[in-house]
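Input (4-hydroxy-tetrahydrodipicolinate reductase):
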Amino acid sequence: MIKVLVNGAYGRMGQAVVKAVLEDKDLDLVGAVDIVGEGDAGETVGLPKCGVSFTRDLQTTIDSVKPQVMVDFTIPDVVFGSAQVALKNKVAPVIGTTGLSDDQKQELAKLAEANDTPVFIAPNFAIGAVLMMQMAKQAAKYMPEVEIIELHHDKKLDAPSGTALQTAALISEVRKAHVQGNPNEKEKVAGARGADVDGMHIHSVRLPGYVAHQEVIFGGLGQTLTIRHDSLNRESFMPGVCLAAKSILGHKGLIIGLDKFMD
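Output:
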């Protein structure tokens, strides 16, 4: 069994990960770290006692329980430092927290190489979302006029989402950058057309009631094509989280995207 520590274990996503790890026969929960939370992690997520209590300090917990993998669902301001701590201790981070900058990703890549320990970053752990991104890349070869709308709960801290940025990056591999729409258009309100990535516009919606959703809209002569994915609850991410935790140790360096484990 693979020994897993969950960082950010008391948050909504963290608790879902704790439950998923406890229910996976190939994974062994050995640590649950969070700045809040107390008591047995199993009982907290509605399962029988598991013998793992919430702890506050990541380094102390790593020293104590010797995990092989750290699944991180904290916040953007915390995840980079946590990943550095894990890598320096030869613990492979599986990062679900979005908001890392390109420079931070490169720093983690260097640290992964220096410590011979892989690090994985997932813009989205939902397998359906990965398929949506792959299908969007394929469609963009034939319909290069495209916009992305991503919709999330109103507690999300970053915009655009990591999924939207990854989708745009994949589309850019097959689509030549160009300006879309009327070249003389003017925004009556700043930001009305959304963010611009190589001429593609990304729109971010934040409202209560949403979990994580995205649609990629393509336009062509007399037709449109919409590819949409909806995560209706946090459990939708758990098969991907467990897949990453079980797959990462067979890889090296920085790995981005769940598709790398879906061959």
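The first helix runs from residue 12 to 23.
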